[in-house]
Amino acid sequence: MEAVDALPVHLNRKVAVEDFDLMAVEAENGNKQNGREIVLGRNVHTTCLEVTEPEANDEFTGDKEAYMASVLARYRKNLMERTQHHLGYPYNLDFDYGALGQLQHFSINNLGDPFIESNYGVHSRQFEVGVLDWFARLWEIEKSEYWGYITNCGTEGNLHGILVGREVFPDGILYASRDSHYSVFKAARMTKPAIINVNIGTTVKGAVDDLDLVIQTLEESGFSQDRFYIHCDGALFGLMMPFVKRAPKVTFQKPIGSVSVSGHKFMGCPMPCGVQLTRMKHINVLSSNVEYLASRDATIMGSRNGHAPIFLWYTLNRKGYKGFQKEVQKCLRNAYYLKDRLRDAGISAMLNELSSTVVFERPIDEDFVRRWQLACQGNIAHVVVMPNVTIEKLDDFLNELVEKRSTWYQDEKLRPPCIAADIGSQNCSCALHK
Amino acid sequence: MEAVDALPVHLNRKVAVEDFDLMAVEAENGNKQNGREIVLGRNVHTTCLEVTEPEANDEFTGDKEAYMASVLARYRKNLMERTQHHLGYPYNLDFDYGALGQLQHFSINNLGDPFIESNYGVHSRQFEVGVLDWFARLWEIEKSEYWGYITNCGTEGNLHGILVGREVFPDGILYASRDSHYSVFKAARMTKPAIINVNIGTTVKGAVDDLDLVIQTLEESGFSQDRFYIHCDGALFGLMMPFVKRAPKVTFQKPIGSVSVSGHKFMGCPMPCGVQLTRMKHINVLSSNVEYLASRDATIMGSRNGHAPIFLWYTLNRKGYKGFQKEVQKCLRNAYYLKDRLRDAGISAMLNELSSTVVFERPIDEDFVRRWQLACQGNIAHVVVMPNVTIEKLDDFLNELVEKRSTWYQDEKLRPPCIAADIGSQNCSCALHK
């Protein structure tokens, strides 16, 4: 288990704003730029695309129409270039939803619960529940036993999972991993029930918490199954791991409470979305708690994007288990290739077992970082090898990196940083460890 | 001011799950079906579109491709019919985003703060900030003074607004209106600061809380401006009111803290979204509070849909103030027409001043309710007259209603309900009040 740190946040039924972020464990899982100062870019106002009022004769001259078309054409070109040079974030940018273009004209909204019919008829619940059933099968829970919905993003899934945990255990203590070697059970001697966030692939290093060990330790520490609630945050890797041989299994056959996974990451989707599944018995607790508001709404958001379920449904149908398996194998193979090539070039690099996230020495040229859209933290950067990342793209990246890097370190004054603390001395190629 | 009820929820820094719904004032503003029992439709599993695994020879036979195409074609036909017969929810279903089809191939994600550049390059912040600036102009706040973002829906905006209020006043008491005649200031004698949700158009009746009277009463009750925080929930009507003559004005020139408005309602958008604006000084409080997580993230969600800002930017550019003004006038005109025609036909009906939401006697035939996708509560139903609702559509609806209704009440045993308590006796056409 990677670095499960005790974070004994006392939870009674009340949660502060700060906990929003705590719950979401977005500190680790969000796409934050921990390594450099973050500055409010107020200049965005000057570089942004201003909205201008139409003029009276616009319809006749067509000037505005032409202006808009040119803005969009330039923007599209920029998106193509940015999509081409992207390696840092765990988004599969390779998808073809051309067949769904015909649906973009509709205001599809799955407001409220996927399983409760709303009077609003322009929805896509039939696709949403089809997708949820697919995940219920994947995570081994009966249709009559689960409840779930398609979220707007990973944060919403985590928020929901931990909220359900708190409803089940109003006096519970929340444990979440940090990337360091504290024990998660530091506070386990207290008699409070435990709410635990298990990472299925951490953001920066792609490390997987050992679910089985967490459960075993809970049981050894005397927690019966009615005294703990486990939320599995599977953001990226939750959908890859089922297709990796020898990987531990996330399944509702184990005593877990909920699982969330992102839809725009491994699967690929034009907009962010996610899948959230929990046990029916838990959501009933949540629903009854809000019933005094005449609401059976169990989702966090009210209006909900009805296009996202169709995108996911389409991909699942087209690719299926076998398709995902092939893509996962390709990603892992390409990740090994990248890690080996980096090490061959004398660059510190690590690849966690089961992961396609290659962690390596942070390039010191910020232009280079931005050009390849690398996510960085301190002295490390990472490339997340997704299905759209080919060997050719990795070669382009590697060649450019090796060439540029030779200029960064050409005079001996500046030396590549030691990142042994982050990736282990056996993976570090600094002057000391190489 | 319509029915501002004291809802003295004691807020310390901690908020329970229940408060999620409270804050969002979704009890009133959500699209809930208060009038009839809500049943978990587990049969959805049997009517849903199952995901099936591709077969080995699919690529050669083209069978699956053909199956998918036929599912989508049937679904599209259904969407067209459902869009055609829709009156109940405040969504403008009339939009043409054909020009943006070219962007659906990209995974556009504005993760995190709109004003902080992320390394992920496939974003649309330039459009997002253009849209936010437009709203800042509308609501009269300097670019350097505001912070805001485009949300996933109205709930997220309300959640964010009230969270900011709580950060400003950790010991504040939250007041929100209910549709009844209690006073909002029942608990005002307490010395706690006040956090107030002001409805700019309630969901069911389209009534507008009197912002000026709320501020005046706060001041008369001895609340200085540093002791209250007002969030304006402008879900639908927040974008219509600026274009209604004699309507009270929502502006940051008044001592308000935040405003939210939906993007898929009056503006129209394929997916739900919203706009959230607050004062820069407030968001700085929120940001610094989460900084110990190495996060400057001030939005509720992490990954954020990058297509929504482009849809809004496109509509604002095309329609502008004048376009919206014309559409608002058309909506109000058509709403008056509907209300008058209902009353002429002897049907209880009410139209709040400034509103395009026509409240009337609930049709007793649930098939009819579903066919026209009416939102109902108790004995009342409503039609929200949006830009896509034409006189022709209203005539179709009216003719069908009058015809069917004559059969519902043909024998004298069953009589139309009295709804005077909901809409006032002067608007009620029941046996007693007509």
Your description of this structure?
2 copies of one chain form a homodimer. With 434 residues, chain A is an alpha/beta fold. Chain A has 13 helices and 11 strands. Chain A has helices spanning 17-24, 26-29, 44-47, 58-61, 63-84, 125-138, 154-168, 211-220, 280-289, 307-344, 366-371, 391-408, 420-423, and strands at residues 9-10, 146-151, 173-176, 194-199, 228-233, 258-262, 274-279, 349-351, 357-361, 375-377, 380-384. Chain A has a 7-stranded mixed beta sheet, sandwiched between helices. The longest helix of chain A has 38 residues, at 307-344. The two termini of chain A are 27 Å apart. At the A-B interface, helix 1, helix 2, helix 3, helix 5 and helix 6 of A face helix 1, helix 2, helix 3, helix 5 and helix 6 of B. Chains A, B: Belongs to the group II decarboxylase family. Chains A, B: Pfam families: Pyridoxal_deC (PF00282). Chains A, B: This is Serine decarboxylase. Chains A, B: Keywords: Decarboxylase, Lyase, Pyridoxal phosphate.
Most residues in contact: chain pair: A-B, 137 and 138 residues
> Given the structure, what is the number of helices of chain A?
13
Beta percentage of chain A is: 5-15%
Oligomer: homodimer
Task: Profile the largest sheet of chain A.
Answer: 7 strands, mixed
Based on CA atoms alone, the radius of gyration of chain A comes out at: 23 Å
The secondary-structure element order of chain A is EHHHHHHEHEEHEEEHHEEHEEHH
Structural class of chain A: alpha/beta
Q: First CA to last CA of chain A: what distance?
A: 27 Å
Poorly predicted regions of chain A? 1-42, 179-190, 288-296
Q: What's the number of extended β-strand segments of chain A?
A: 11
Q: How does the overall form of chain A come out from the CA principal axes?
A: globular
